[in-house]
Each structure stands twice: as C-alpha cells, then as structure tokens.
TrEMBL record:
An example molecular function term from Gene Ontology annotations: fructose-2,6-bisphosphate 2-phosphatase activity
Biological processes annotated in GO: negative regulation of glycolytic process; regulation of pentose-phosphate shunt
Coiled coil regions, renumbered to chain: none
Gene3D superfamilies linked: Phosphoglycerate mutase-like
Listed Pfam families: His_Phos_1
Protein's UniProt keywords contain tRNA-binding: no
Annotated catalytic residues: 9 (tele-phosphohistidine intermediate), 80 (proton donor/acceptor)
Regions of compositional bias (Basic and acidic residues) in chain numbering: 137-176
SMART domains, sorted: PGAM (SM00855)
Annotated binding of substrate, by residue: 58, 80-83
Identification of the protein by name: Phosphoglycerate mutase
GO terms under cellular component: cytosol
Length: 220
C-alpha cells in the first residue's frame, strides 16, 4: 500500500489574471510564494519518503519551497492538461472546455482521458518502486501456498520474537509519497483511486466548492 498526499501548486501570475496556463510554463506570483511558505509550516510535522512534482515551473518552485532541502523528483507525467492551442488563454474560455473535453482532445492538445492515462502510468511506476516489496510478498505467498509444514515452521520461528515481526512488517510497509501538481492530474486521481466519474470529479472539485486544504489523501 502507498499513501499519497497530493498538493496543488501556489497561485501563479496567470491565475491572478484568470488565464489557464496548461503547458505554458509560468511562475508563482508573490501570493503563490507566500502560500507555499504557509503550506510548509502547516505540514512541518508530516514525514514523506519521496517527493514528486510536475516538471512545470510553478509546481517545481512550490515543491522547492514546501519541501526545502528534500530531494524532489520532477516528472513530466504530472503536468497539467495540455490545452494545445488554448494554453495560456482566458479561463472563461478554457474551463468550460475542460469539462467537455473528457474524451475529445483540445486542438493540438490532450483530453482528460489522456491525462488519466499518464497518471495511471505514473501510479504503476509508484506501485513497482515504492509499494513496500510487492515482488517479495508475492513470492512468499506463492511459496507458502499448499505447504502447511513451511507455514507452521515459519509461524513457530516468529512466535515470541516481536523484533523479528516488526522488522518483517516494516520491510513490507508501503511509502508515504508527496505529489505537487495541478488540477487535471488531481481530478484523474479522483477518477482512478476514488471511483468517481469525470463528471463527479469536476462537480466536486474543491476549486468550485472553495474547500482548499493543505493536502488531499489517496491510497494506492
């Protein structure tokens, strides 16, 4: 199991002008910098095994502030939706198009499903690399099946030895992963990990309900 805490980047100069950046590489505004500093303080007691972010500047800069001093891995799969010809255009135009472009791509860009597919690929990467030791778990499970003698012997060897039990449990524990990214990848997580439809994800998006919080939790 992997615990994911998802953070959105701070406010950008485009956000303040009601522009939907998409793949336009824009930086944080002064407000966005302050937001990131405040978020750093809000989550100072949380521990993460690894930090990922989109490779776009607004996400990278937010991650560097929030997780100052920690190694940060930028991943192109965590980018915002590519609005194609509409990158950097007015949000009054782009936002209604987002909800209509679930399966149909923006001109020269992506659809929501395209974003979901690359996020699914990223989640598979996490599963293969940060989910405790799933390969060892599967091998052990396979070796135990149908062999009660082995099971009894291992149970006997573990009984009364909490140190061994704790060590084995620790070796199989998943990681706590932090992600700093954008709107569309977060909604894709809602679809992939919380079983929402795209329509539900858009309708319940915190940007509409004004229910921002310092991190959203997901389990892989």
């Amino acid at each position: 199991m992997i615990n994911i805490t998802y953070f959105v980047h701070g406010t950008t100069t485009d956000n303040e002008e009601d522009i939907s950046s998409g793949w336009k590489d824009v930086g944080l505004s002064e407000l966005g910098v302050r937001q990131s500093i405040e978020l750093k303080e809000n989550i100072k007691d949380k521990k993460f095994d690894v930090v990922f972010c989109s490779d776009l500047k607004r996400a990278v800069d937010s991650a560097k502030i929030v997780f100052e001093g920690a190694p940060i891995i930028a991943d192109i799969r965590l980018r915002e939706c590519n609005y194609g010809k509409f990158n950097g255009k007015s949000s009054l135009i782009v936002e209604p198009m987002q909800e209509k472009n679930i399966t149909e791509s923006f001109p020269e860009g992506e659809s929501c499903e395209d974003v979901k597919n690359r996020i699914a690929d990223f989640l598979e990467f996490l599963h293969q690399n940060y989910d405790g030791n799933p390969r060892t778990q599967r091998a052990e499970q396979s070796s135990h099946d149908g062999n009660p003698r082995t099971q009894r012997a291992e149970q006997s060897s573990h009984d009364g030895n909490p140190r061994t039990q704790r060590a084995e449990q620790s070796s199989h524990d998943g990681k706590h992963v932090a992600i700093v990214s954008h709107k569309a990848p977060q909604l894709a997580l809602d679809v992939l990990l919380k079983g929402k439809t795209w329509e539900q994800a858009f309708a319940e998006d915190w940007r509409k309900t004004k229910a921002w919080r310092p991190g959203w939790e997901y389990t892989l």
